[in-house]
Amino acid sequence: MKNDQAAHETTGVTVKLLAAIDLGPEIDGMAGRQLRMRLVNIEPGGVFGPVHDHKDRPGVVYILQGTITDHRNGVATEYGPGLGWPEDRNTTHWLENRGTVPAVEISVDIVRQE
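The structure assignment produced for this chain is given below.
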């Protein structure tokens, strides 16, 4: 895939919710939000898209296995096991697995409750 900000659709991705907590009772001003932790598996050739931002949805990612390529601002950065990245209000990106083994990450973020 080219290193661009095109609208790549999600393919080859499975997401499992590991835990979530309602932040309303925990922190004043956080009603309607939850802290969640997910296990994300991206198969070889898989894409986590389309291009999306993290305005109002901050998070952090930690890679457990494989390599994930994070595309931001026209730059592709590869992250392997033991590495990760923040996702703040300035993050606009999409992800892919260019490798030959599944890439597995733990993603923790704050989201509006559905």
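Interim note for the steering committee: The longest strand covers residues 33-53. Strands lie at 11-22, 33-53, 59-65, 68-72, 75-79, 84-87, 92-96, 103-112.
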